[in-house]
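To close the section, here is one more complete example, presented without commentary so you can practise reading it yourself. The ligand is 2'-deoxyadenosine-5'-diphosphate.
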Amino acid sequence: MERTFLMVKPDGVQRNLIGEIVARFEKKGFQLVGAKLMNISTELASEHYGEHKERPFFGELVDFITSGPVFAMVWQGENVITTARQMMGSTNPKDAAPGTIRGDFGLTVGKNVIHGSDSPASAQREIGIFFNEAELAEYTKIVNEWIY
Ligand code: DAT
Ligand code: MG
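Output:
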């Protein structure tokens, strides 16, 4: 089953959006595999956002993501990578459709509430830098028989 890495950013944690965001993915039918509240070091932030190293906003991005705890998660389910991105909405909340997480809870690109992997390769990479195997739970949910 496909897995993705999702993270409530420091603004979402401070604004008490963890429960709301977890509830959306639960209700959709996805299965939580791992989760933790944690602080991100500058080193981890630079690795996670390595693809943006040359962008003018990189410094700001690292400062923001290390400014307070994040809620890091691994979710599993059919097509979860693409569907989670759709549920998050466009990167800039001003372009994100109502009904999406960024569309409902964000106003500016610098504080857009949630991160989600954008491809199978980035999902694998990001899960690997945030979680070790022992932190991920392998289990069967009976309700899956009513989802799949
Ligand atoms: P996404 O988070 O939708 O995958 P991304 O990978 O292009 O978007 O960028 C990573 C984060 O960097 C994004 O969530 C917010 C920030 N960011 C992107 N473009 C930005 C910009 N033009 N100015 C400031 N921050 C930006
Ligand atoms: Mg991205």
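Once you have examined the tokens, check your reading against these statements. The mean pLDDT is 98. The longest helix spans residues 18-28.
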